[in-house]
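Risk register update: the risk that structure generation would not scale has been downgraded. Supporting records follow, first protein first.
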Amino acid sequence: MLAAERGAAANTLTAYRRDLEQAEEAVGALERASRAEIASLAKLWAPLAPSSVARKSSALRQFYAFLADDGLREDDPSASLPRPATRRPLPRILSHAEVEALFARAEEEAESGKADAVRMLALIEMLYGSGLRATELVSLPLAAVPRDAPFINITGKGGQQRMVPVSTRARGALSRWLEVRVGGGRHLFPSRSGHLSRVRLFQLVKGLAARTGIDPAKVSPHVLRHAFATHLLEGGADLRVLQLLLGHADIATTQIYTHVDAARLVALVNERHPLAAKARRL
């Protein structure tokens, strides 16, 4: 149902399946579990972060809603599950200087002409230049490479289609990659198992950060996507346009970047305002 009717992404399906299996290990067959047994999960989840508890509760609520809709169960024991208050954390971002340093290092290494180095440059150009999610990037088909129009068609979460711009720099990096690309298959970034994995992409990005002299803990494919969004917003991009570029179904998700920009301004005032300097002297 989640896949066919709601178009849930593969990662969402995997997470919900894992949550349901773990709950079943704790209370037995979920379709027959009593309200008290479902309520007992709250104690089991107590050590977890509120966001994890919220996801697990959501998985069970949707499961029991499905059973009710299909007439497989008359009552809904999920009402006894906890509803933790979650607060969306502000995304980590990189400064303009850090992004420039990453690209300078990647471009320097790509000058060697080695396939891995040229691929690395193409990967970060697409992460920061087009704001792609890690899964969207690694699963790009070879046919997606733009020829005439400076756009690329992306299939995002839930199978939603969108068009994202590909900068002149990124198109140049992709062209260089295609000249040295090794391996066959239909994917732009192939591997022996099909295409480059998300885990390997994370490793590559963190490795580049370390070679640049930036703490690898600060950098990931998603952080580059956040930097793309935040820096566009700083430059005056419209929030609705940003929503379309990022592929957010709800603009409330995109609005988190307005808070990031506000937080940056507060930090700037605290650091640069004359009264702030006076307070430090005191």
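Supporting record for the second protein:
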Amino acid sequence: MSLSVLRHVELSTEERVAFLKLTAAKRRGEGEEEEIPSESPSEAEEQVAEVALAPDRVAAWEAAEEFLLTVTDGGFGKRSSAYEYRVTNRGGQGFANITLSRRTGSAVVATLPVRPGDDVMLMTDAGRLIRVPADQVRITGRTAMGVTLFRLDAEEHVTAVFPVLEAVADDDDPDDSSAPDVESSDNG
């Protein structure tokens, strides 16, 4: 199990809701389908006043925005803005992360932060693997059910999700000792 720490940005409830609506509208304008962020019943009851956001603050929030990839054991997944998850204090009741059903799965396997260009590997209990570019997973609201990431056989479940870590070549070291030396020989 790994621990990920997200950057915290101070936003009021009104600013958070206005920012999420603005970014959802921008994504829909770019042709990417996105569900409007859905609030839980307790949050929906709390009416939030519309606020005007300064363009410089919106740009700063967009630059700091992080996305969480959630994957279920049924092979479904989604990306959501970390701003969708409010900060709770000790003793909080928690909040819904993804809609689980017979179709989507019975449990969340992983929720991890992803950045542009990241890939993740999904592994099943049958030993199958698939590499998924995180950028290709649709951005949806926090409680949405997501999209199919991995088509599973009957009685097969996703058991692990982990980020793909690419090896970075050290350009300063011309003698890369980690690469095996291959010599060509002519036996002619």
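Residues 13-86+94-163 form a domain with the Neuraminidase fold (CATH 2.120.10.90). On this basis the risk owner (M.S.) recommends closing the item.
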